[in-house]
Structures are given as C-alpha cells and as structure tokens.
Fold 2,4-dienoyl-CoA reductase.
Amino acid sequence: MKETTAASPFTLHNKNVTFKNRFVKSAMSEGLATKVHLPDADIFRLYHTWAKGGAGLLITGNVMINQQALGEPGNVVLESEKQLGLFRAWARAGTHNDTHLWMQINHPGKQVPKGVAREAVAPSAVPFESGIQRFFPHARALTHPEIEKIIRQFAHTASLARRAGFTGVQIHAAHGYLISQFLSPRHNQRTDEWGGSIKNRFRFLREIFNAVREAAGPEFPVGVKINSADFMKAGFSEEESQYVIKELERLGVDMIEISGGTYERPELFGKNASASTLKREAYFLEYAESLKQTTEVPVILTGGFRTRPAMDSALQSGAADFIGLARPMAVYPDYPDRLLSEAPVPRIAPVKTGLPFIDNLGIMELAWYNQQLARLSKGRKAAPGFPPVFSLALLLMKNGINVIRQRRG
Ligand SMILES: Cc1cc2nc3c(=O)[nH]c(=O)nc-3n(C[C@H](O)[C@H](O)[C@H](O)COP(=O)(O)O)c2cc1C
C-alpha cells in the first residue's frame, strides 16, 4: 500500500466527500468585513487566491452568528438570508480548483475588546486574569433563554452557509470563545444543567452540534475546532478534551481540529512551547498522538507546522489526518503548492519587536498577519520583511497606547 503523505487524497466515506490532499488552511479572522459586517470583493479575492494555492480545504476566519456578538470590528456576520448573494460570491471564489470551503461559525462570549461591543456575556460572570480584564467589559452570565437562543442562532447560520454554497461548517469551540468558556471549569461556574460536571459543561456544545446537524442536514459536513487544553490553572484539561471529542464522535462529528490556548494563554501561537516541541514543529502533536489511540474521527492538527518532513511524519504516525496551516498561508498563499512540489519553503521570521512584554502577547501575531491578509486581499504580494515594530506602530495609531499598557500586566 502507498504510504500516506500530505499529497494523499482523503475521503469522508459517510458523506461521499473527497479532499484532494491533506492541507487545510486554518481559520484566520480576516478583519476585512464592510462596516455592516458583510464580505466584499476583498474577501472574495483573498479566497480566490487561497483556492488557487493548492489546499484541499479552506476554513474561513470566524463568522459571527449575530451582529450583537462581535469579537473584532472587521468580523463577518451571517444571520439573515437577505445577504446570501454576497456569501454565494464568497463560496464561489473559495471553491474553484477543486477546493472545499468550510465556514467557521463563532460567538466570542466575553472575548470582546472594549469598544467592539457594549456588553460581554459568558457562562458565568468570571473576570479574566488581572491585567487582561481592563481590556474587556465585565462579563455577565447568560440566562437560560439566552443560551437557547444562541444555540438556535448557530444552527441558523450553519443552514445559511449551506444554502450559500459553503461545503461544510466548523463550530469554533477553541481559543477561549463562548463555547470554550462553557467547557472550562474556570470560566463556567454555573450550578444549573449548563455547569458543574464535564457532562454538563459539554451540554452547550452538544446542543449546538445537534441543532447545526439538524438544520444543515445529515449530508453536510460539520467539524469542531477544540482545544487540547486551555493551559490555565483549574481550566479545561486534556482528559476533558478527549472526553468531549469521544462524545462528539458518538454524535457524528465529521472532523475535529486540534489547537490550544486562549487570549489569556496564547499557546495557539506556540508561546511557551518547549524546545523539543518546536523541533517537531506541531505544538499539540503529543496530545494528538494520545487522542488518536482512542478515536477514529478525522483530525486536523494545527499550530506550528512548516515543513513537509514534519507534516508527513505526523500523518504517517497516525497522529493527524490533515495538516492545519494558518500563518504561512498569510504570507505565501500557495504554501500547499510549494510543499507539494517539494520546493524548499522560505522561512518566515518570528514576529518580534524586541520588547519581550509585547512579544509574548498574541496581539502582535494577529496585527502583523492581519496586515499581510489585507495586502493579499488587494491582489498585492505579502511583505514578509515588514518590520514588526511598524506593525506595532500601526496598531498603536489605530487603537492607542492603551492596547499595550492594558495588556502588559
Ligand atoms: C491573523 C490570525 C487570525 C486568526 N483567526 C482565527 C479564527 O478566526 N479562528 C480560529 O479558530 N483561529 C484563528 N487563528 C489561529 C489559527 O487558526 C491557528 O490556530 C494558529 O495561527 C496556529 O497555526 P499556525 O502555526 O499554522 O499559524 C488566527 C491566527 C491568526 C494569525
């Protein structure tokens, strides 16, 4: 039998869906929506470029399920069928060249910076760690009817995505957003049926998954992005993560994407990864290896992958079925094609200003890479040599010195 490599196709047998290779462009919030939170020509151009670049599956940046719950000013929102024409154009742009395009759907919960939304909601009114909290409004706990409404909104957005021509959806349950807050015993301190045991903390995601499946239909691929852990004291653990994935498998999830961390712990960008982890590139490889001992569900492993040998080795060991790539795709949108042709891939320098208290924050990664996405969306080439200190200057000009000051603690 031929050995599995990143070039091997993959079929979801129960869905009759085939991906031409194992490269997945992971979600990157584009920050490019219009003032009324819709996609336009810039986003279409960006996805056309990515589809041309060779990945088997593109996952969109998080699309919010409701206009009142934005994570960032430039978020796309899909909540009404009136806007479907624009989403159809997006779907067309991202599915040429035999490419799949899944929409990532999200609710930010309390991860809404001040100035973006009037209030922040969460499972419980638990503040962020000191230092970070000053950057966000204080969260209030959701009521039971509000929770039910959010579940329906996830389902509605998924059914609209399907009607628009997206070939799947991914529910965002990672990185400290609302679903991830429900899963975490630190952030979810409810005493009703939505909190307490992991079974209860999983209830919100379970209900969302079931509602999405029902609204989008049995043939439509539904994936979930989830943390291996959130790396916080008394937070969501690897054991709990494995429990949730087993449950989702039982419910019929089509694909799991593994990441980790939150705004408080930006481990998704490899912050604090050990030298031995960095050598194997993928930040969550060990977790994926252990997960795959207990589950058959197809896994996208995301975070840190850069070279073909590391990718092929993760695929051949069975730790992953797909390789998730985010930051490289913002600089070289044809990264998959480059890897497939086995051309050497350029090394992307780490985003470092030289100021350690800034460099340890996720915000610099987001700022620098968002600037690259903005260039691609205008049909320009990315600028890998763009100095991160200039990104910092642009960030400060846009948001003021408080962005840094407030996050410093
Ligand atoms: C600019 C930017 C925006 C991101 N937005 C999202 C997002 O909307 N949803 C998500 O799940 N992850 C998001 N991520 C995280 C990536 O999907 C990925 O997990 C992370 O960058 C690690 O993968 P990499 O090493 O290949 O970049 C974002 C990352 C960047 C750089």
Notes: Residues 26-29, 61-62, 104, 172, 174-175, 225, 259, 268-269, 302-304, 325-327, 365-366, 369-370 surround flavin mononucleotide (CB under 6 Å). The chain has two domains: 10-348, 350-409. The chain has 15 helices and 14 strands. The two ends are 55 Å apart (CA to CA).
